[in-house]
Specification:
Elements: H1 3-9, E1 14-18, H2 23-34, E2 38-43, H3 46-53, E3 59-63, H4 71-83, E4 88-91, H5 106-134, E5 137-141, H6 154-174, E6 180-186, H7 201-213, H8 223-234, E7 245-248
Parallel strand pairs: 1-2, 1-4, 2-3, 4-5, 5-6, 6-7
Length: about 260
């Protein structure tokens, strides 16, 4: 049996995506569902999750705050009870927090660490038995700008850079257990992640102008372009790929 035959013979994959209510998470949920996977779309707000699942019978919305005590156990237990397996975990949920050294407080630091770093660690750890049983894949969503200096947004970039180090480390730790770990590092993408920062239209326009100036391809990317990278690196045909961090950024990281 060749690889293509083995893929068609498998049961539909089960995929968990955090931060699936909008943007990259929603696009990834739709892409996996289009491939025939069962998708558990996780997010804090029920309404955006319902919009993600609308018209897609293979997508199930699961409202959960990944930073809450017991959230990881709740998510994994829900998946195990419903499907008995987990093939792909996409740690996509993230929040942005701008600021310079000297302006940070415990109140601004803690949410960034809790959402962008601690929650993915705890969820991956809790999901590991299911992932190992399925020979699964973990995808960490980081940021391409985190590979360069990012004045004014260094703490956000630091959390994502830390997630990249975890990606490489977990890839080595888990290789003998049959679990692959990869990361996707988006550049400037059309998502609502910054909508809760209280920026004025002028500030948002200035940020977009800065992003365009630092993107050689001269445009903002689409969530679907990141979703393509996620589904491609998690495909069974990518079974010899682990520990990589793939930028999807129009060339920003190399400019």
């Amino acid at each position: 049996m060749n690889l293509d035959d083995s893929l068609t013979a498998r049961s539909p994959r089960v995929v968990v995506i955090t931060g699936a209510g909008t943007g990259i998470g929603r696009a990834a949920a739709h892409a996996f569902a289009a491939e025939g996977a069962h998708v558990i779309a996780v997010g804090r707000r029920a309404e955006p999750l319902a919009e993600t699942a609308a018209g897609h019978h293979r997508i199930t919305a699961l409202t959960a705050d990944i930073t809450a005590d017991g959230a990881a156990e709740h998510i994994v237990r829900t998946v195990a009870d419903a499907h008995g397996r987990l093939d792909v975990l996409v740690n996509n949920a993230g929040i942005v927090g701008s600021g310079n050294l000297g302006t940070y407080t415990r109140e601004t630091i803690d949410p960034l660490l809790a959402t962008n770093l601690i929650a993915p660690v705890l969820l991956t750890q809790t999901a590991l038995p299911l992932l190992e049983a399925a020979g699964g894949v973990v995808v960490n969503i980081t940021t391409s700008v985190g590979q360069r200096a990012w004045p004014g947004n260094s703490l956000y970039a630091a959390t994502k850079t830390a997630l990249e180090l975890l990606t490489r480390s977990w890839a080595v730790e888990l290789a003998q257990r049959g679990v692959r770990v990869v990361a996707i590092a988006p550049g400037a993408i059309t998502t609502p992640i910054a909508d809760h920062q209280g920026w004025t239209p002028e500030q948002h326009a200035a940020i977009r102008a800065w992003q365009l100036a630092h993107t050689p391809m001269g445009r903002i990317g689409a969530p679907e372009e990141v979703a393509w990278a996620i589904t491609t690196l998690t495909a069974p045909a990518a079974s010899f790929v682990t520990g990589v961090v793939l930028p999807v950024d129009g060339g920003a990281v190399v400019a």
